[in-house]
Backbone:
């Protein structure tokens, strides 16, 4: 495949097997797919990242991630993007960070920016870019419906995850599980309360990044709820994640914001694990109530749903992931989007 794609990670994110952010996992899937297809994949990301293609490093920023640190990271990304486009024949750039509008390249190379987060979290400049040849991609119908009307939205490509041939389930699932970034909007304290109310063990896996609000939430709302039956195990890699999923009776997603997608829900279903979630944003699209999990409104309903998960079939969860959320489908959709944008560009220049 004669194609060179420049993927750009969030300016403070480190890519690798233990990356917990959905944007980072999607970028890594695209990077691997491009290399497997024989294309040239270049990724701008912090030092310490691991990628399948060529890595253009920006300096790793020491915590805390305050405004000054974020500004330094964005300037470094802008410089790295400009150097890469100057040195390589880049066909298309694909930006993934919530801060992408701060380091859009100079006009020239067409740009796709995937909106991985709720539209309200993006600046006006991001949702209505003035730079020519700049296109937006949404990751769910719910997210697209929440976006202001814009001719710049080129597509809606749902996220995807690796789906095994069969669900790797333990014969005796033991605990309720939650995974993700430890921050206020994820609402993990509700999952802890629900597990305690349902009298089931609980495991929370994830990373608490060095943002003040995240650290305060962990210390104030998570630590006091931990005990011998409800544990925090920190960040986990792919093998540890699979081991947790294989022994989980369900995955809890008590998000308090309108989620644009949920790789955690997709990964759970791929492993044959039902999902119990608050129906915020795209979660109501992803979880089929009564089939692949339950949609609930509070911790009390979540506790009741934990007790009812044995009525759901593991193979129904796996089949939903296979037919809707496979990573290879996502990668193909992005390849088609790149191809369509480049064809349209060629027609305009003809």
Residues:
């Amino acid at each position: 495949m004669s194609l060179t794609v420049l993927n750009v990670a969030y300016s403070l994110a480190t890519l690798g097997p233990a990356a917990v952010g959905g944007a980072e996992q999607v970028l890594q899937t695209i990077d691997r797919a491009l290399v497997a297809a024989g294309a040239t994949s270049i990724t701008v990301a912090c030092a310490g990242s691991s990628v399948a293609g060529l890595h253009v490093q920006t300096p790793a920023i020491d915590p805390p991630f305050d405004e000054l640190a974020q500004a330094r990271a964005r300037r470094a990304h802008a410089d790295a993007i400009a150097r890469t486009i100057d040195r390589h024949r880049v066909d298309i750039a694909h930006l993934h960070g919530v801060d992408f509008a701060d380091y859009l390249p100079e006009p020239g190379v067409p740009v796709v920016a995937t909106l991985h987060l709720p539209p309200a979290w993006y600046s006006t400049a991001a949702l209505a870019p003035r730079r020519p040849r700049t296109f937006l991609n949404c990751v769910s119908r719910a997210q697209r419906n929440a976006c202001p009307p814009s001719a710049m939205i080129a597509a809606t490509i749902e996220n995807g995850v690796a789906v095994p041939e069969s669900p790797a389930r333990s014969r005796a699932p033991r605990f309720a599980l939650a995974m993700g970034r430890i921050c206020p909007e994820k609402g993990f304290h509700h999952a802890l309360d629900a597990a305690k109310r349902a009298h089931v063990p609980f495991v929370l896996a994830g990373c608490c990044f060095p943002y003040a609000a995240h650290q305060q939430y962990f210390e104030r709302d998570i630590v006091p709820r931990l005990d011998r039956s409800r544990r925090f195990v920190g960040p986990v890699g792919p093998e540890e994640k699979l081991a947790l999923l294989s022994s989980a009776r369900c995955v809890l997603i008590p998000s308090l914001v309108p989620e644009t997608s949920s790789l955690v829900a997709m990964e759970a279903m791929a492993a044959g694990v039902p999902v119990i979630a608050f129906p915020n944003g795209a979660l109501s699209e992803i979880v089929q109530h009564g089939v692949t999990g339950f949609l609930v409104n509070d911790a009390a309903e979540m506790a009741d749903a934990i007790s009812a998960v044995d009525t759901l079939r593991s193979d129904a969860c796996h089949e939903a992931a296979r037919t809707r959320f496979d990573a290879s489908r996502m990668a193909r959709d992005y390849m088609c989007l790149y191809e369509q944008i480049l064809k349209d560009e060629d027609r305009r220049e003809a």
